[in-house]
Amino acid sequence: MRKKTLWIIFVLILICTTIGNMSVGTASVSSPPVMSIDPATSTAAPGETFTINVTVADIAENDSLYGWEAEISFNPDIVNVTRVTSGPFLRDAAATYGYTTIFVKTIDNVNGSFKVGESIFPKFPPDDPYPPVGATGNGTLATITLTAKAEGSTLLHFEENQHKLFTIKLDNLIEITHDVTDGLFEYPLRVHDVAVTNITANPKTALPGEIIFINVTVENQGDFSENVSVTISYDATDIETSNATLSIGESRIVQFNWDTTDVTPGTYNITARATVAVDDDQTDNIRSSETWVIDVIPEFSTLLPLMLLLAAMAVFALLLKRRTGAKPVDAYLNL
Ligand SMILES: [Ca+2]
């Protein structure tokens, strides 16, 4: 009965912000605020408790927040809600001007939902009913404690048309257009994870124009089939990208033929990186040839000194012949 009374008071506060003017409009903003469940993904073994926050981001200065409400549903066979408490976002903004808030919540672990809302509590004349500015920016609206009931997954879902943000302008209660982002509970937690586990090249020394064969081993270490793009590069220059689909646990060698025609002679490390839409462990997606390098050597670089030496010897022999009359070969042999 007490909860019902609080909800009635809460709704009355939202509706009757000013007596005699109760029009409800819609604030227009270029980048709408977002109500979210934070963290986006939660996990806990059956029997364990965990917490999530209802957060809001990007509340604009000219559409500051005076009140909000949301109904969030879940699968009660997977999780139960044990506690719902107010977050600091609206409360602190109200306190700045000496105002308080009214915070209400109901929990339904039979059907799987909780409803929560908060509004700045109005003052009555001679004071202004509401502070000049509400909450702005980003913050936590509420913190919810849940208990994991069983293995499995469930969305923590903002019920359609049951989530609202309010501002007050010129004595009007105005609903702020916004987006929502659901949360997910999952146990055991499945992850997306591909990794580059090996990289080899042959040959490791080449003249420009020669082909170097590079093998990159990629492995799907996660719990989903993945479409992965594998890109190899020398220093900061990409060479080629190849796509592959890897089933769970699959390891595959992706082959590349590096045409070195336009490669400036030099010494290079080769790097391979695996890219997927979501990867929960980014630390193993890039691998470099740390223990070896590729040498692209200048063309004729080994023949040129030899040719210069032979030419110099021939000239020297001719000069000797002119001076001594000896045959060039004899002169050379007599050196
Ligand atoms: Ca990874």
Give a structural overview:
- This protein has 335 residues and is an alpha+beta fold.
- It folds into three domains: 7-187, Immunoglobulin-like (Sandwich), CATH 2.60.40.680; 194-296, Immunoglobulin-like (Sandwich); 303-334, no CATH class.
- It contains four helices and 23 strands.
- The chain has helices at residues 2-15, 88-96, 303-324, 328-333; strands at 24-27, 34-38, 41-42, 49-59, 67-73, 79-86, 101-108, 113-120, 137-148, 152-169, 172-176, 179-181, 183-187, 194-202, 205-206, 211-220, 226-234, 237-246, 251-259, 266-268, 270-275, 286-288, 294-296.
- Strands 1, 3, 5, 7, 8, 10, 11 and 13 form an eight-stranded mixed β-sheet that branches. Strands 6-9-4-2-12 form a five-stranded mixed β-sheet. It has a four-stranded antiparallel β-sheet with strand order 18-17-21-22, with no helix packed on it.
- The N and C termini lie far apart (118 Å).
- Mean pLDDT is 89; it is low at 18-23 and 328-335.
Structural features:
335 residues, alpha+beta, Immunoglobulin-like, 8-stranded mixed β-sheet, 5-stranded mixed β-sheet, 4 helices, disordered C terminus, binds calcium ion
